[in-house]
Write a structure and sequence with these properties.
With 108 residues, the protein is of the alpha+beta class. It is built from three helices and four strands. Helix 1 packs antiparallel against helix 3. One of its GO terms (molecular function) is monooxygenase activity.
Length: 108
């Protein structure tokens, strides 16, 4: 399960996919297969979550990795490059962004 906290040394990655309602289910199927069959087995993988808006035009992926280099190695692998070519056909654009958690808020 992803953990959102400021004082962590983890690499957080948010990827936004712009898609269409007609392609959203196929995109989600491919992303789930990528996590089930490949990504979740890579060194440094901690957790991920997939989100979709109600219009089915945006998919957001939140993932965490032990180190930035672990995420980059997965992304550059032949397997993931092959999968990303197929994923790219199902969306207008997608962009992974490596981020740092600045602040978290909990109910008082």
């Amino acid at each position: 399960m992803p953990s959102i906290a400021k004082d962590t040394q983890l690499q957080t990655v948010i990827t936004t996919f712009e898609t269409s309602p007609g392609s959203c289910s196929d995109l989600l199927d491919d992303l789930q297969a990528a996590y089930d069959q490949f990504i979740s087995h890579q060194p440094g993988f901690i957790a991920a979550a997939l989100h979709v808006n109600d219009a089915q035009t945006r998919v957001v992926n939140y993932s965490q990795w032990t180190r930035r280099e672990d995420f980059q190695a997965m992304l550059r692998s032949d397997e993931m490059r092959r999968r990303n070519r197929k994923i790219n056909e199902l969306c207008r654009s997608f962009e992974p962004v490596m981020i740092d958690v600045v602040k978290t808020y909990d109910p008082e």
